[in-house]
Write a structure and sequence with these properties.
Elements: E1 5-7, H1 21-26, E2 31-34, H2 44-56, E3 60-63, H3 73-107, H4 119-127, H5 132-139, H6 143-152
Parallel strand pairs: 1-2, 2-3
Helix pairs in contact: 5-6
Amino acid sequence: PRFQPVSVPTLSAYATARSIPLLQASMPATRWSSPGSTGWPGRLKDLQDIVHELKAKGGALRATEQPVDTGTAAGTAFLDMLGVFAEFETNLRRERQLEGLAAAKARGVYRGRKPSIDVAEVKRLKEFGLGPTAIARKLGIGRASVYRALDVA
C-alpha cells in the first residue's frame, strides 16, 4: 500500500510525545516522518509509545535522515538502539549536573534561589487574622504558597 507521509516539526529534547498536538493529529496517518533522531522525544518510552500507536493503526515511523523505518525489523531495532543511547546520554547529563551542583554547594558557592516569599510576613498576616486567600492577594502570591509557608513556620 502507498503511505501518506506526514511531516512533523522537530521535537525539543524536553518535550514529551504526548504534549505535542501536531503529533497527536498525525497519528491517524499511515506514516509519520521525522527529520532525524535528534528531534525525537527525550524518553525511550515516549518513542516506543509512538511506534506502537502507529503500528496499531497500520502505520510506521520513517526518519528522513536516518536509516530508520519501523516497518522493518532492522529499522525497529535501530530505532530502539538510538533511543537507548539518547536516554543514556540524557541520564549522564543529569548526573553530571547534579554532581556539579553538589560540589558547588559543598564549596559554598551555590546556595540556591533566594526565597520569593517572606514567611515571616505570611505568619504576621495570619496572626493579624487574615485568611490564606486574603494573604495571597495582599502579597501577590498563590494560595498554595501561603499554605506551604504556614506549614514551614
